[in-house]
Specification:
By secondary structure, the chain is of the alpha+beta class. It has helices at 10-20, 72-76, 78-86, 94-113; strands spanning 25-29, 34-39, 44-51, 56-63, 68-70, 117-120. Strands 1, 2, 3, 4, 5 and 6 form a six-stranded mixed sheet that branches. α1 packs antiparallel against α4 (94-113). It starts with 9 loop residues before the first helix and ends with a strand.
Length: 124
C-alpha cells in the first residue's frame, strides 16, 4: 500500500476500494494534493488534484499512447464506445476504461459524502 499523507481520509478510502474490488492500479504521488492512477495494463492515466481549501477534486483522463486528454463525455457514452471498439480505433482497452469509471464513481461518492465537488479539468 502506498503512503500518501494528507489531512483527508480520501487516499485510504480510495486504496481500500481498489484493494476490495481487486482493481490493479498504480498510484503515483506528485505532491500533497496531486497524484495519478493508472491501470497496470493500459495507457490511460487519471490525474487528480485535491483542493482542500475550496473542497474540490479536479481530474483529467489522459492517453499516453495517443498523447491526448480524453473528455469523459466522449468515451463514456456506450454507443460511441462500442463504435470505437468495432472500428479498432484508440479505445481497445475496454476493461481498463470500465475500471476507471468504477474508480471515478468511488471518488464521486467520497466527494459527495465529504461535501466536495468533482470537476473534469478539461471542462473548466
Amino acid at each position: 500500500m502506498i503512503d500518501i499523507p494528507t489531512s483527508l481520509d480520501f487516499y485510504p478510502t480510495l486504496l481500500d476500494f481498489l484493494e476490495k474490488e481487486k482493481i490493479a492500479f498504480t498510484i503515483t504521488k506528485k505532491s500533497e494534493s496531486e497524484f495519478w492512477i493508472e491501470p497496470l495494463q493500459s495507457d490511460i492515466i487519471t490525474y487528480l488534484t485535491i483542493d482542500e481549501l475550496n473542497h474540490k477534486i479536479f481530474y483529467e483522463i489522459y492517453s499516453s499512447e495517443d498523447d491526448e486528454y480524453l473528455e469523459v463525455n466522449s468515451i463514456k457514452d456506450v454507443e460511441k464506445f462500442e463504435f470505437i471498439e468495432e472500428s479498432r480505433c484508440k479505445w481497445n482497452n475496454e476493461k481498463a476504461i470500465e475500471e476507471i469509471w468504477l474508480v471515478l464513481d468511488e471518488i464521486k461518492l467520497w466527494a459527495f459524502k465529504n461535501n466536495y465537488k468533482i470537476i473534469e479539468k478539461e471542462m473548466i
